[in-house]
Specification:
455 residues; mainly alpha; 0% strand; DNA-binding; hydrolase activity; Pentatricopeptide repeat-containing protein; repeat
DNA sequence: CTAGGGTTAG
């Protein structure tokens, strides 16, 4: 095709819009070079922002080689693209380059992008630096910037900083409140999240689906079934769309509160489901001893959707099998995972298998499995196996003893391990040893510390 | 061209 220069510059924006591959865009770049239109900032910007959609790397190299200072729009596109590609360090690096070499200052698009990148990777130090620049540039006046700052401190689990930003806000919109609720949940303060929500209602701000996802998460942590149910009715009454996230959060809440039947009702009513949704529903069945239902749901997923099960889903289904004594099914899932889906088993999967065999009383098989695993068993697996030994006996004393020693060496601070060790010594009739081990329980924690500091 | 959300063994 032949274009006159003026008609060419008219057509180029459309060409950009139509290009959906890197080679096509590179061809366009060649065209710009040939026609000297590459010296027009408008086209350069368009090239960079189009490239950002497809290949951040290419976009970056074009920006670096521009013969004139790139537009702020181009810088912003690049930072955003890096943030969206989870390359937070690169996003921050581009932001620094913008400040050093760029023409003009960062604007109220730049800061949300770079802050989002910092939040994603919990880069608190970098985030604080950006916060300082935000203050200096007077950008706190922008609500997007303020809300992203709030999100940053929530993600970095520095709740006091989040509160500071939140308290200093004069105007709070639904995003500000949602971010604050989310920050409380992220910092293991679910009851705080609930209070913030109540305050939000008093301020006459209406929650949206994102707010409710965070709030439901707080309900799950607190097992507040009544509140969870009222959120569910709120959703139904207000015709809030049950999207994947909201539906998943609801199912999770019902799971945690022991109401799997309700989980299933929500699950069935959802239109779109992703892998997480299936995983959560299957693990709900797993936790409530409904192994058969879990297995049938797994098969249903394989048959009815194009989703490919992942490592987490296999953890869930293996756990379902082990809790319901479905030994053959569990073993079959394990080999399907390895042979059909080519997923490399990790500690969790081995743990499920040891648990599956151990609970079923197949102690020797469990021992054999542990010995044949390519990794050394962790505390969880050791405890699971030794509990099986305590219950079903029938492992040779010397083999059991070695694993007990391993457990006590790796986790000497947990009192529960000494209880287990003492019980096993009793099984083998070593009474004095059992007595000594029981003495060691004193002064040690019986449960793991979860690190929850609820207010 | 802008901000916020959910999962896995014991």
């Amino acid at each position: 095709m032949k274009y006159s220069l003026s008609s060419l510059s008219y057509h180029i924006p459309f060409l950009f819009q139509r290009s959906n591959s890197v080679p096509q865009l590179l061809q366009l770049q060649a065209l710009l070079l040939k026609t000297a239109l590459d010296h027009h900032q408008f086209f350069a910007t368009q090239l960079i922002s189009s490239l950002c959609r497809l290949s951040v790397r290419h976009a970056h190299s074009v920006l670096d080689r521009l013969p004139f200072p790139p537009s702020l729009f181009a810088w912003n596109s690049l930072i955003r693209a890096y943030a969206e590609a989870f390359q937070s360090t690169a996003a921050f690096q581009v932001f620094s380059n913008l400040r050093r070499f760029g023409a003009g200052e960062a604007d109220f698009f730049t800061y949300p992008f770079v802050l989002k990148a910092c939040a994603q990777s919990s880069m608190l130090g970098e985030g604080r630096v950006v916060h300082g620049l935000v203050v200096k540039a007077g950008m706190l006046a922008d609500s997007h910037v303020r809300n992203t700052l709030l999100h940053l401190y929530g993600s970095c689990r520095t709740i006091w900083c989040a509160w500071k930003v939140f308290d200093e806000m004069r105007e709070r919109d639904v995003v500000s409140w949602s971010c604050m609720i989310e920050a409380c949940v992220a910092c293991s303060q679910p009851s705080c999240a609930v209070s913030v929500f109540q305050e939000m209602r008093l301020s006459n701000i209406n929650p949206n689906s994102v707010t409710l996802v965070s709030l439901l998460s707080a309900c799950s942590h607190l097992t507040k079934l009544k509140m969870g149910r009222s959120i569910h009715s709120f959703i139904l009454l207000n015709n809030i769309k049950l999207d994947i996230s909201l539906g998943t959060a609801l199912i999770l809440m019902y799971n945690k509160c022991g109401q799997v039947n309700d989980s299933l009702i929500v699950f069935s009513s959802m239109e779109g489901k992703n892998l997480q949704t299936w995983t959560i529903m299957i693990s709900g069945f797993a936790h409530h001893g409904k192994g058969k239902e879990a297995v049938s749901l797994f098969n249903q997923m394989e048959a009815a959707s194009s989703l490919k099960p992942d490592s987490l889903l296999f953890s869930a289904i293996l756990s379902a099998c082990s809790h319901s004594g479905l030994v053959a099914e569990g073993q079959s899932f394990f080999s399907t995972m390895v042979d059909v889906y080519r997923i490399k088993p990790v500690m969790e999967h081995y743990g499920c298998m040891v648990d599956l065999l151990g609970r079923a009383g197949l102690v020797e098989e469990a021992y054999k499995f542990i010995k044949e695993m390519p990794v050394s068993p962790n505390n969880v697996i050791l405890r699971s196996f030794l509990s099986a030994c305590r219950k079903h006996g029938s492992v040779s004393e010397s083999n059991g003893r070695k694993l007990v020693e391993q457990l006590l060496t790796e986790e000497p601070e947990l009192g529960a391990n000494y209880v287990l060790a003492a019980d096993l010594s009793s099984v083998f009739g070593r009474w004095s040893e059992a007595f000594k081990l029981r003495g060691a329980v004193k002064g040690r924690r019986l449960k793991k510390v979860t690190g929850c500091s609820w207010v």
